[in-house]
Amino acid sequence: MRKIISFMHISLDGFVAGPNGEMGWIKVDEEIFDYVGKRISEGDTALYGRVTYQMMENYWPNAGNKPTATKHDIEHSKWYDKVHKVVLSKTMKDAALTNTKIISDNLSDNINEIKQSRNGGSKEILLFGSPTATHSLIQLNLIDGYWLFVNPIILGRGIPLFVDIKDKIKLKLLTTRQFTSGVTELNYTVDRQ
Predict the structure, then answer these.
(1) Which residue of 33, 146, 161, 189 is surrounded by the most CB atoms within 10 Å?
(2) Count of domains in the chain?
């Protein structure tokens, strides 16, 4: 069965965005882009909440074609174009969307169906950002791992990664990595034993 891995930048005090969704505090550079690019390039399915999907859709389809496009823009734009996208939204319709599936109800059944379908693809389904979608999937115990990039900042308030957790979630640390920017990667799997 495929695993859903939540990929998220997070502050030291556990926030994924400021109170109004601000993300200007997130540190990203070529070192992080290259590192993340290697792992996501192996993936064939990306999972988004509606807000994150619309943000991605407004930028990535044409980012690699711009005269000022960076190496990262070109590579990620190509990946974004070919990856199968799954969007959790109660308001969007997928009638005209290419390579995109909208899930608006029966979240647990629909996500488990995607987890069980291999389509000859990768073992991971990466959930990018999307705190509201992440909260919903945590409540349904559908997230199998957390790939967190802890930024060296304390926000004090904002949108937390973990809210209304009903039961403890045991994690097993797989890897860590320190970047020169001060960001630390923590890669966990959910310990279901």
Answers:
(1) 146
(2) 1
What is the DSSP code (8-state) at residue 114? Answer: H
Its domain, for residue 156, covers 3-190
Round to whole Å and give the CA distance between 41 and 52: 19
Tokens, residue 143 = 């997230």
In the block, tokens 């060296």 appear at 152
Q: What are the residues whose beta carbons fall under 8 Å from the beta carbon of 186, sequence distance 6 or more?
A: 146, 147, 148, 149, 150, 173, 176
Helix (H) or strand (E) holding 177: strand 171-178
Contact 47, 133 (CB under 8 A): yes
Which CATH number fits the domain that encloses residue 121?
3.40.430.10
Mean pLDDT (10-residue bins), the chain, 193 residues: 93 95 93 91 88 87 86 86 90 78 90 79 85 91 96 97 91 97 97 88
Measured distance CA(75)–CA(47) in Å, rounded = 19
Q: Is-contact 32 181, C-beta < 8 A?
A: yes
Task: Tell me the whole-structure pTM to 2 decimals.
Answer: 0.89
